[in-house]
Amino acid sequence: MSIPKPEKRIAEFEKMAYGMFIHWGVYSQLGQGEWIKNMKGIPDEEYDKLLETFTAKDFDADKIACLAREAGMKYITLTTRHHDGFSLYDTKELGDYNSLHTPAGRDLVREFTDACRRHGIVPFFYHTTLDWHNPDFNGNFDAYLEYLRRSVEILCTNYGKIGGFWFDGNWSRPDADWKLDELYGTIRRYQPDAMIINNTGLSARGATGHPEIDSVTFEQGLPHPIDREGAPKYVSGEMCFTLNDHWAYGQNDYNYKSPADLIKTLCRCRKAGANLLLNIGPDGDGGVPEIMSGILKVIGRWIEQTGGAIYDGKPCGIAGAGEDFGLKTEDGRVYLFFFDLPIVGNESVTVDTSKVGPRAFAGVHDKVRAVRWLDNGRELAFAQDADTGLLGIQPTGYPYGSNMVVRVAELLF
Ligand code: GLC
Predict the structure, then answer these.
(1) Which atom of ligand 1 is nearest to the CA of 240?
(2) DSSP H helical segments within 128-258, as ranges?
(3) What is the atom index within ligand 1 of the atom nearest the CA of 128?
(4) What does the alpha-carbon distance between residue 235 and residue 227 come to, in Å, rounded to a whole number?
Protein backbone atom coordinates (compact mmCIF):
# COMPACT_ATOMS: atom_id res chain seq x y z
CA MET A 1 0.00 0.00 0.00
CA SER A 2 1.18 3.51 -0.64
CA ILE A 3 0.08 7.11 -0.36
CA PRO A 4 -0.88 8.73 -3.69
CA LYS A 5 0.81 11.98 -4.72
CA PRO A 6 -1.40 15.08 -4.70
CA GLU A 7 -2.26 16.55 -8.08
CA LYS A 8 -0.82 20.04 -8.58
CA ARG A 9 -4.01 21.96 -7.78
CA ILE A 10 -4.44 20.00 -4.57
CA ALA A 11 -0.82 20.48 -3.49
CA GLU A 12 -1.17 24.22 -4.15
CA PHE A 13 -4.44 24.37 -2.25
CA GLU A 14 -2.83 22.77 0.79
CA LYS A 15 -0.07 25.37 0.74
CA MET A 16 -2.59 28.20 0.75
CA ALA A 17 -3.52 26.90 4.21
CA TYR A 18 -5.84 29.68 5.29
CA GLY A 19 -8.75 31.32 3.48
CA MET A 20 -11.64 33.67 4.03
CA PHE A 21 -15.21 32.49 3.67
CA ILE A 22 -17.79 35.19 2.89
CA HIS A 23 -21.50 34.67 3.40
CA TRP A 24 -23.29 37.60 1.91
CA GLY A 25 -26.52 38.09 0.01
CA VAL A 26 -29.87 39.88 0.21
CA TYR A 27 -30.59 38.00 3.46
CA SER A 28 -27.75 39.95 5.11
CA GLN A 29 -30.09 42.95 5.29
CA LEU A 30 -32.18 41.13 7.89
CA GLY A 31 -29.11 40.44 10.01
CA GLN A 32 -30.35 37.04 11.13
CA GLY A 33 -28.28 34.60 9.13
CA GLU A 34 -28.66 33.12 5.65
CA TRP A 35 -31.30 30.56 6.65
CA ILE A 36 -33.85 33.17 7.78
CA LYS A 37 -36.20 32.69 4.82
CA ASN A 38 -36.49 29.01 5.58
CA MET A 39 -36.50 29.35 9.38
CA LYS A 40 -39.30 31.89 9.42
CA GLY A 41 -41.12 30.51 6.39
CA ILE A 42 -40.98 33.92 4.69
CA PRO A 43 -43.05 33.73 1.47
CA ASP A 44 -41.34 34.61 -1.83
CA GLU A 45 -43.32 37.84 -2.36
CA GLU A 46 -42.16 39.17 0.96
CA TYR A 47 -38.59 37.88 0.74
CA ASP A 48 -38.17 39.32 -2.73
CA LYS A 49 -38.71 42.83 -1.35
CA LEU A 50 -35.14 42.45 -0.12
CA LEU A 51 -34.01 42.72 -3.73
CA GLU A 52 -35.55 46.19 -3.95
CA THR A 53 -33.40 47.49 -1.10
CA PHE A 54 -30.19 45.68 -2.01
CA THR A 55 -27.78 48.49 -2.91
CA ALA A 56 -24.44 46.88 -1.98
CA LYS A 57 -23.33 50.43 -1.28
CA ASP A 58 -20.58 49.40 1.13
CA PHE A 59 -19.42 46.32 -0.74
CA ASP A 60 -15.82 47.14 -1.57
CA ALA A 61 -14.14 44.08 -3.04
CA ASP A 62 -10.70 45.72 -2.98
CA LYS A 63 -11.04 46.44 0.71
CA ILE A 64 -12.06 42.85 1.39
CA ALA A 65 -9.20 41.42 -0.67
CA CYS A 66 -6.78 43.72 1.19
CA LEU A 67 -8.22 42.59 4.50
CA ALA A 68 -7.67 38.96 3.49
CA ARG A 69 -4.07 39.73 2.62
CA GLU A 70 -3.43 41.53 5.86
CA ALA A 71 -5.04 38.62 7.67
CA GLY A 72 -2.58 36.18 6.08
CA MET A 73 -5.31 34.52 4.03
CA LYS A 74 -4.43 33.32 0.54
CA TYR A 75 -7.89 32.74 -0.91
CA ILE A 76 -11.49 33.84 -0.54
CA THR A 77 -14.59 31.71 -1.05
CA LEU A 78 -17.61 33.91 -1.78
CA THR A 79 -21.27 32.86 -1.78
CA THR A 80 -22.01 33.48 -5.46
CA ARG A 81 -25.44 31.95 -4.87
CA HIS A 82 -26.85 30.66 -1.59
CA HIS A 83 -29.88 28.48 -0.82
CA ASP A 84 -32.29 31.39 -1.39
CA GLY A 85 -31.36 31.13 -5.08
CA PHE A 86 -30.26 34.77 -5.45
CA SER A 87 -27.03 35.20 -7.42
CA LEU A 88 -24.33 37.82 -7.06
CA TYR A 89 -23.44 37.34 -10.74
CA ASP A 90 -24.96 37.83 -14.16
CA THR A 91 -27.02 34.68 -14.72
CA LYS A 92 -27.59 35.72 -18.36
CA GLU A 93 -30.41 33.77 -20.09
CA LEU A 94 -31.20 31.90 -16.88
CA GLY A 95 -33.14 34.80 -15.38
CA ASP A 96 -33.11 38.05 -13.42
CA TYR A 97 -32.83 36.80 -9.88
CA ASN A 98 -29.44 38.39 -9.40
CA SER A 99 -27.61 41.49 -8.19
CA LEU A 100 -27.67 43.15 -11.61
CA HIS A 101 -31.44 43.44 -11.25
CA THR A 102 -31.43 45.23 -7.90
CA PRO A 103 -30.60 48.87 -7.09
CA ALA A 104 -26.97 47.68 -6.84
CA GLY A 105 -27.06 46.97 -10.58
CA ARG A 106 -23.60 45.41 -10.43
CA ASP A 107 -22.01 42.06 -11.15
CA LEU A 108 -20.55 41.58 -7.69
CA VAL A 109 -18.75 38.37 -8.58
CA ARG A 110 -16.87 40.27 -11.27
CA GLU A 111 -15.87 42.95 -8.75
CA PHE A 112 -14.80 40.17 -6.42
CA THR A 113 -12.68 38.21 -8.91
CA ASP A 114 -11.06 41.36 -10.31
CA ALA A 115 -10.18 42.64 -6.85
CA CYS A 116 -8.80 39.27 -5.74
CA ARG A 117 -6.43 39.24 -8.68
CA ARG A 118 -5.31 42.79 -8.03
CA HIS A 119 -4.29 41.82 -4.51
CA GLY A 120 -2.83 38.37 -5.09
CA ILE A 121 -5.74 36.46 -3.60
CA VAL A 122 -7.19 33.36 -5.26
CA PRO A 123 -10.98 33.58 -5.79
CA PHE A 124 -13.17 30.57 -5.01
CA PHE A 125 -16.89 30.26 -5.64
CA TYR A 126 -19.30 28.92 -3.06
CA HIS A 127 -22.39 27.74 -4.95
CA THR A 128 -25.53 26.25 -3.55
CA THR A 129 -26.94 23.10 -5.06
CA LEU A 130 -30.12 23.27 -2.98
CA ASP A 131 -32.53 25.99 -4.15
CA TRP A 132 -35.54 27.47 -2.33
CA HIS A 133 -36.41 29.79 -5.22
CA ASN A 134 -36.35 27.76 -8.42
CA PRO A 135 -39.61 25.75 -8.56
CA ASP A 136 -37.88 23.07 -10.63
CA PHE A 137 -35.89 22.05 -7.56
CA ASN A 138 -38.98 20.35 -6.19
CA GLY A 139 -40.83 20.00 -9.50
CA ASN A 140 -38.65 19.06 -12.44
CA PHE A 141 -35.36 18.06 -10.86
CA ASP A 142 -33.67 17.24 -14.16
CA ALA A 143 -34.47 20.71 -15.47
CA TYR A 144 -33.14 22.14 -12.22
CA LEU A 145 -29.89 20.20 -12.59
CA GLU A 146 -29.38 21.63 -16.06
CA TYR A 147 -30.05 25.12 -14.63
CA LEU A 148 -27.43 24.45 -11.97
CA ARG A 149 -24.93 23.06 -14.48
CA ARG A 150 -25.41 26.05 -16.77
CA SER A 151 -25.00 28.43 -13.80
CA VAL A 152 -21.67 26.80 -13.07
CA GLU A 153 -20.72 26.98 -16.73
CA ILE A 154 -21.38 30.73 -16.68
CA LEU A 155 -19.14 31.07 -13.64
CA CYS A 156 -16.46 28.96 -15.33
CA THR A 157 -16.38 30.95 -18.54
CA ASN A 158 -16.87 34.61 -17.55
CA TYR A 159 -14.60 35.37 -14.63
CA GLY A 160 -11.12 34.19 -15.65
CA LYS A 161 -9.15 31.55 -13.82
CA ILE A 162 -10.60 30.62 -10.47
CA GLY A 163 -9.28 28.59 -7.56
CA GLY A 164 -12.24 26.30 -7.25
CA PHE A 165 -15.87 25.61 -6.51
CA TRP A 166 -17.32 24.94 -3.09
CA PHE A 167 -20.70 23.26 -3.41
CA ASP A 168 -23.23 23.06 -0.64
CA GLY A 169 -26.63 21.42 -0.48
CA ASN A 170 -26.40 17.85 -1.79
CA TRP A 171 -27.12 16.79 1.76
CA SER A 172 -30.67 18.15 1.28
CA ARG A 173 -31.45 15.23 -1.06
CA PRO A 174 -29.10 12.48 -0.07
CA ASP A 175 -30.73 9.87 -2.29
CA ALA A 176 -31.10 11.95 -5.45
CA ASP A 177 -29.00 11.50 -8.56
CA TRP A 178 -27.28 14.89 -8.74
CA LYS A 179 -25.66 14.05 -12.10
CA LEU A 180 -22.31 15.01 -10.69
CA ASP A 181 -20.36 13.66 -13.66
CA GLU A 182 -21.92 16.39 -15.74
CA LEU A 183 -21.59 19.14 -13.16
CA TYR A 184 -17.99 18.36 -12.27
CA GLY A 185 -17.20 17.54 -15.91
CA THR A 186 -18.22 21.10 -16.82
CA ILE A 187 -15.66 22.45 -14.37
CA ARG A 188 -12.91 20.13 -15.55
CA ARG A 189 -13.59 21.17 -19.14
CA TYR A 190 -13.29 24.93 -18.60
CA GLN A 191 -11.26 25.23 -15.41
CA PRO A 192 -9.00 22.16 -15.21
CA ASP A 193 -6.98 23.67 -12.35
CA ALA A 194 -9.98 24.46 -10.16
CA MET A 195 -10.52 22.57 -6.94
CA ILE A 196 -13.87 20.81 -6.57
CA ILE A 197 -15.14 20.77 -3.03
CA ASN A 198 -18.52 19.56 -1.85
CA ASN A 199 -19.63 20.33 1.67
CA THR A 200 -20.70 17.12 3.33
CA GLY A 201 -22.23 19.08 6.20
CA LEU A 202 -22.31 18.66 9.93
CA SER A 203 -23.24 15.00 9.90
CA ALA A 204 -20.61 13.62 7.52
CA ARG A 205 -17.42 15.55 8.21
CA GLY A 206 -14.42 14.31 6.25
CA ALA A 207 -16.50 12.12 3.92
CA THR A 208 -15.38 11.86 0.29
CA GLY A 209 -17.85 10.73 -2.37
CA HIS A 210 -17.45 11.48 -6.06
CA PRO A 211 -13.98 10.71 -7.47
CA GLU A 212 -13.60 14.29 -8.76
CA ILE A 213 -13.76 15.73 -5.23
CA ASP A 214 -10.40 17.31 -4.39
CA SER A 215 -10.90 18.19 -0.73
CA VAL A 216 -13.13 16.94 2.04
CA THR A 217 -14.85 19.40 4.40
CA PHE A 218 -15.08 19.58 8.15
CA GLU A 219 -17.92 22.03 8.77
CA GLN A 220 -17.55 23.67 12.17
CA GLY A 221 -15.45 20.83 13.50
CA LEU A 222 -11.85 20.02 14.14
CA PRO A 223 -10.38 18.11 11.23
CA HIS A 224 -8.89 14.73 11.78
CA PRO A 225 -5.82 13.65 9.82
CA ILE A 226 -6.80 11.95 6.58
CA ASP A 227 -5.78 8.32 6.16
CA ARG A 228 -4.45 8.15 2.60
CA GLU A 229 -2.89 4.69 2.70
CA GLY A 230 -4.00 2.90 -0.47
CA ALA A 231 -6.46 5.69 -1.39
CA PRO A 232 -7.23 6.05 -5.12
CA LYS A 233 -6.43 9.76 -4.99
CA TYR A 234 -4.77 12.28 -2.67
CA VAL A 235 -7.57 14.44 -1.25
CA SER A 236 -6.95 17.46 0.97
CA GLY A 237 -9.03 18.70 3.89
CA GLU A 238 -10.57 22.04 4.83
CA MET A 239 -12.40 23.13 7.94
CA CYS A 240 -14.87 25.97 7.62
CA PHE A 241 -15.61 27.92 10.74
CA THR A 242 -17.78 30.84 11.84
CA LEU A 243 -16.48 33.84 13.78
CA ASN A 244 -19.60 33.76 15.96
CA ASP A 245 -22.54 31.38 15.59
CA HIS A 246 -23.77 32.49 12.16
CA TRP A 247 -22.39 32.35 8.64
CA ALA A 248 -24.25 35.34 7.23
CA TYR A 249 -24.52 38.54 9.27
CA GLY A 250 -26.12 37.96 12.66
CA GLN A 251 -26.74 41.41 14.06
CA ASN A 252 -27.49 40.21 17.57
CA ASP A 253 -24.96 37.43 17.71
CA TYR A 254 -22.26 38.61 20.12
CA ASN A 255 -20.74 35.21 20.62
CA TYR A 256 -17.45 35.96 18.86
CA LYS A 257 -14.52 33.65 19.22
CA SER A 258 -11.32 35.17 20.50
CA PRO A 259 -8.25 35.64 18.31
CA ALA A 260 -6.43 33.36 20.76
CA ASP A 261 -8.90 30.53 20.19
CA LEU A 262 -8.79 31.07 16.46
CA ILE A 263 -4.99 31.01 16.38
CA LYS A 264 -5.17 27.67 18.15
CA THR A 265 -7.84 26.49 15.74
CA LEU A 266 -5.66 27.44 12.78
CA CYS A 267 -2.76 25.51 14.30
CA ARG A 268 -4.93 22.49 15.04
CA CYS A 269 -6.08 22.46 11.41
CA ARG A 270 -2.50 22.53 10.17
CA LYS A 271 -1.60 19.80 12.66
CA ALA A 272 -4.14 17.62 10.86
CA GLY A 273 -2.86 18.81 7.47
CA ALA A 274 -6.07 20.71 6.73
CA ASN A 275 -6.82 24.27 5.63
CA LEU A 276 -8.90 26.69 7.68
CA LEU A 277 -11.65 28.63 5.91
CA LEU A 278 -12.65 31.32 8.37
CA ASN A 279 -15.93 33.06 7.74
CA ILE A 280 -17.04 36.68 7.80
CA GLY A 281 -20.59 37.92 7.28
CA PRO A 282 -20.69 41.44 5.82
CA ASP A 283 -23.73 43.53 6.76
CA GLY A 284 -26.73 44.22 4.52
CA ASP A 285 -24.86 46.94 2.61
CA GLY A 286 -21.78 44.79 2.15
CA GLY A 287 -19.57 46.45 4.77
CA VAL A 288 -17.41 44.26 6.97
CA PRO A 289 -18.21 44.85 10.66
CA GLU A 290 -15.17 46.19 12.51
CA ILE A 291 -15.09 43.40 15.02
CA MET A 292 -14.68 40.88 12.22
CA SER A 293 -11.87 42.71 10.47
CA GLY A 294 -10.28 43.39 13.86
CA ILE A 295 -10.14 39.74 14.81
CA LEU A 296 -8.73 38.77 11.43
CA LYS A 297 -6.01 41.40 11.61
CA VAL A 298 -4.80 40.13 14.98
CA ILE A 299 -4.45 36.63 13.56
CA GLY A 300 -2.65 38.10 10.55
CA ARG A 301 -0.06 39.67 12.84
CA TRP A 302 0.49 36.32 14.53
CA ILE A 303 1.05 34.64 11.17
CA GLU A 304 3.52 37.32 10.15
CA GLN A 305 5.50 36.93 13.37
CA THR A 306 5.65 33.17 13.00
CA GLY A 307 7.31 33.53 9.63
CA GLY A 308 4.52 31.89 7.71
CA ALA A 309 5.24 28.47 9.23
CA ILE A 310 1.61 27.53 8.76
CA TYR A 311 1.70 27.56 4.96
CA ASP A 312 4.37 25.13 3.85
CA GLY A 313 4.57 22.79 6.79
CA LYS A 314 2.91 19.41 6.64
CA PRO A 315 2.35 16.75 9.29
CA CYS A 316 5.48 14.63 9.51
CA GLY A 317 5.09 12.34 12.50
CA ILE A 318 6.69 14.76 14.99
CA ALA A 319 4.47 14.94 18.05
CA GLY A 320 4.79 16.73 21.35
CA ALA A 321 2.99 16.31 24.64
CA GLY A 322 -0.50 17.77 24.92
CA GLU A 323 -1.28 19.76 21.82
CA ASP A 324 2.31 20.48 20.80
CA PHE A 325 3.28 19.24 17.36
CA GLY A 326 5.75 19.55 14.49
CA LEU A 327 5.44 20.28 10.77
CA LYS A 328 7.97 19.74 7.99
CA THR A 329 8.28 21.60 4.70
CA GLU A 330 9.17 20.08 1.36
CA ASP A 331 12.65 21.59 1.57
CA GLY A 332 13.28 19.99 4.93
CA ARG A 333 12.59 22.80 7.43
CA VAL A 334 10.96 21.65 10.66
CA TYR A 335 8.74 23.83 12.84
CA LEU A 336 7.62 22.99 16.35
CA PHE A 337 4.42 24.48 17.75
CA PHE A 338 4.18 25.09 21.52
CA PHE A 339 0.78 25.67 23.10
CA ASP A 340 0.03 27.54 26.31
CA LEU A 341 3.39 28.83 27.40
CA PRO A 342 3.27 31.31 30.27
CA ILE A 343 4.57 34.87 30.34
CA VAL A 344 7.77 35.14 32.28
CA GLY A 345 7.87 38.49 34.06
CA ASN A 346 8.61 38.74 37.75
CA GLU A 347 6.75 37.79 40.96
CA SER A 348 4.46 40.80 40.69
CA VAL A 349 3.10 40.23 37.20
CA THR A 350 3.77 36.66 36.17
CA VAL A 351 0.60 34.64 36.17
CA ASP A 352 1.84 31.09 36.09
CA THR A 353 5.37 29.89 35.48
CA SER A 354 4.61 26.24 36.12
CA LYS A 355 4.28 25.56 32.42
CA VAL A 356 7.80 26.76 31.58
CA GLY A 357 9.14 23.28 32.22
CA PRO A 358 10.76 21.22 29.45
CA ARG A 359 8.71 20.01 26.52
CA ALA A 360 9.42 16.74 24.74
CA PHE A 361 8.87 15.89 21.08
CA ALA A 362 9.02 12.43 19.52
CA GLY A 363 9.93 11.66 15.94
CA VAL A 364 12.96 13.94 15.44
CA HIS A 365 15.58 11.63 13.97
CA ASP A 366 17.86 14.05 12.10
CA LYS A 367 20.62 15.53 14.22
CA VAL A 368 19.50 18.91 15.53
CA ARG A 369 22.10 21.70 15.61
CA ALA A 370 19.98 24.45 17.14
CA VAL A 371 16.42 25.35 18.12
CA ARG A 372 15.28 28.91 17.57
CA TRP A 373 12.09 30.87 18.20
CA LEU A 374 10.73 32.23 14.96
CA ASP A 375 9.39 35.42 16.52
CA ASN A 376 12.59 36.74 18.11
CA GLY A 377 15.36 34.48 16.82
CA ARG A 378 16.51 33.45 20.33
CA GLU A 379 18.04 30.00 20.69
CA LEU A 380 16.71 27.41 23.11
CA ALA A 381 18.50 24.82 25.21
CA PHE A 382 17.76 21.26 24.09
CA ALA A 383 18.86 17.66 24.37
CA GLN A 384 18.31 15.04 21.69
CA ASP A 385 18.50 11.28 21.49
CA ALA A 386 18.68 10.85 17.72
CA ASP A 387 18.32 7.06 17.99
CA THR A 388 14.94 7.18 19.67
CA GLY A 389 13.98 10.45 17.99
CA LEU A 390 13.28 12.16 21.31
CA LEU A 391 13.97 15.86 21.60
CA GLY A 392 13.70 17.70 24.90
CA ILE A 393 13.50 21.48 24.73
CA GLN A 394 13.61 24.10 27.42
CA PRO A 395 11.13 26.69 26.19
CA THR A 396 11.63 30.09 27.71
CA GLY A 397 7.99 31.16 27.85
CA TYR A 398 7.02 34.61 26.65
CA PRO A 399 9.11 37.60 27.51
CA TYR A 400 7.00 40.05 29.52
CA GLY A 401 5.17 42.20 26.99
CA SER A 402 4.07 39.38 24.69
CA ASN A 403 1.90 36.29 24.47
CA MET A 404 1.79 34.56 21.11
CA VAL A 405 -0.74 31.93 22.29
CA VAL A 406 1.05 29.32 20.18
CA ARG A 407 4.75 29.87 19.82
CA VAL A 408 6.73 28.41 16.95
CA ALA A 409 10.38 27.32 16.94
CA GLU A 410 12.46 26.17 14.00
CA LEU A 411 14.89 23.28 14.20
CA LEU A 412 18.22 23.82 12.52
CA PHE A 413 20.01 20.74 11.24
C1 GLC B 1 -24.38 24.73 5.89
C2 GLC B 1 -25.49 25.73 5.72
C3 GLC B 1 -25.08 26.92 4.97
C4 GLC B 1 -23.67 27.37 5.08
C5 GLC B 1 -22.72 26.21 5.10
C6 GLC B 1 -21.30 26.65 5.33
O7 GLC B 1 -24.34 23.80 4.90
O8 GLC B 1 -26.60 25.20 5.07
O9 GLC B 1 -25.97 27.96 5.21
O10 GLC B 1 -23.42 28.11 3.96
O11 GLC B 1 -23.10 25.30 6.02
O12 GLC B 1 -20.47 25.59 5.65
Answers:
(1) 12
(2) 141-158, 180-190
(3) 10
(4) 10
What is the distance in A from the centroid of ligand 1 to the CA of 339? 30
The residue among 314, 209, 302 whose CA lies nearest residue 269 is: 314
- What global pTM score does this model have? 0.97
Residues 6+ apart with CB under 8 A from 151: 81, 87, 91, 94, 127
The values of phi and psi at residue 385, to 5°, are -115, 95
Ligand 1 binding site (Cβ under 6 Å of any ligand atom): 23, 34-35, 168, 199, 201, 219, 240, 247
Closest ligand 1 atom to 171 CA = 7
What pLDDT score does 351 carry?
Answer: 62
Q: 351 vs 58, 93, 105, 359, CA distance in Å?
A: 44, 64, 56, 19
| Size of the chain, expressed as the number of residues it contains | 413
Tell me, what's the pLDDT at 209? 82
| DSSP character at residue 250 | B
The predicted-structure confidence for 296-305, as pLDDT tens digits, reads as follows: 999 999 999 9
Ligand 1 centre and the CA of 29: distance in Å?
18
